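Hello,

Our lab assistant flagged a job as stuck in the queue for most of the afternoon. It eventually completed. Since we weren't sure the result was trustworthy after the delay, we are filing this so someone can double-check. Below is the sequence as submitted and the structure that was eventually returned. Let us know if re-running is recommended.
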Amino acid sequence: MQPSPASDRRTPLVDHTVPPRGPRRRPAASSGRLRSSVVVSPAPWEYRRGGADLTDTVTTQHGCTRHGRVGGERGSRVVGAPHPQLRSMVVRGYAGYPESTAVHGNFVLPATAAVLVVLKMVDSSGRPPEFLSGPHVSRVRVDGACSPSYLELWLDPLGAYTLLGVSGAEVGGHLVDLSDVIGRRSRDLADRIRDEPTWQRRFGILDDFLLRNSETGPRPDPRVRRAWECLVETGGAMPIGHIAADVGWSHKHLITRFTQHLGLAPKTAARLVRFDRVRARVDVNPGASWGDVAADCGYADQAHLTRDFREFSGVTPTEYAAARR
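-- returned structure --
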């Protein structure tokens, strides 16, 4: 199935002032104070984290392991692994941020091929109560207070197509009210999640919703899926010409079909996968040698890594690592 064309429901990602559309039960208002420091969000391609910083494991009826974690820029965070059937599509699992009295006023979304979905538990101005951020090829500084409490998940771009019915090409570079993507179900889902008293039960409701969509949602072109898997599995190192040969398309046709689904050309997607691989390494080990990281992640040298890192995040690798300590 081919992705639907872009529509006028999108708002450029640099403009985070989309008002919610239509009446809805809004999350409770925030009473937090604004913190003005700029924060760069961690890498979405974090398929596995070391067990040392995960505690309070709980297993749900779906076999989803729930963890509680303390630390990071926002202080307390609760994370949960999705159902095994979803793990290729939900690339970082679920993250819940309990209400904090210190709310970030500015932060940076680095360039990424992933799709970010946010459901606010506590209201804040500037963005809808439920929204998604599409793939983008340059860093974006987000102004205004972040919600003190919210649920967040990062989706593989082709996973977002199956789970939400929206392609990267349709929402790339934009922030979109989730109700404009999945309709009334967005509000019903968010209200049910907010009504639950624990993060484990909230994750369970979200898991059920995504599992149903995974069984009935549209499927991307199998050869585009294969091309994307080649990039992810090799950390962006597989030459585009080799991928075209692998899927049986010409180089030009691969670029066309890949871009239609992801909103990114294969070469750009490869750079973003490689960049995210570096960030995932640094999130786990902020003290890693940059020369070793560059070699392991497919960069020509450390200078090459630094150029890409600064272009996509707005900070140097050293500055990013320092913020993770």
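-- support follow-up --
The delay was a queue issue, not a problem with the job. The result is valid. The domain at 222-324 is CATH 1.10.10.60 (Arc Repressor Mutant, subunit A). The chain has two domains: 11-216, 222-324.
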